[in-house]
Amino acid sequence: MALYLIAFNDEWVPELTLEDLRERGASGRAVIEEMTAAGVFVFSDGGLDASTAICSVDPASGSPVFTDGPFTETKEHLGGFAVVDVPDDAQARYWAGRIAVAVGWPQEVHRFPHRTLNAER
Hints:
single chain, Alpha-Beta Plaits, four-stranded antiparallel sheet, 3 helices, about 35% helix
C-alpha cells in the first residue's frame, strides 16, 4: 500500500453559487464515504485559500522566525485534499477521478515516495 495525495488548486474551482457549492460538497462527501467503506480513506480537508494563511516561517537565521507575512508570492492556493492508502497508481487515479467528477473541477494525484520506498525494502 502507498499513500497518495489527491488535491486541487483553489484557482481551479469555477465561480459557483452557495447552493452549487453545497451540492458539490455533498457529492464530494459521498465519494469520501465510499473511500471510507473501501478502507482506503486516510484524511481530507478543504476550504483552504489565501485567507487561511496564519503565518510565514523563515529558517534563514538557523532558527524559525514566525511572522504574519510576507507570504510567498503565488497565485495558487491549495483548495482541498484527500489522502488515500491504496495499492497502486491505478487505484489512486480511480479515486481522484471519482472526486473530480463529483465536485466538477480538476484534481492532481501525488504519491508520497517514502511510503513506497519503505515497502520495497
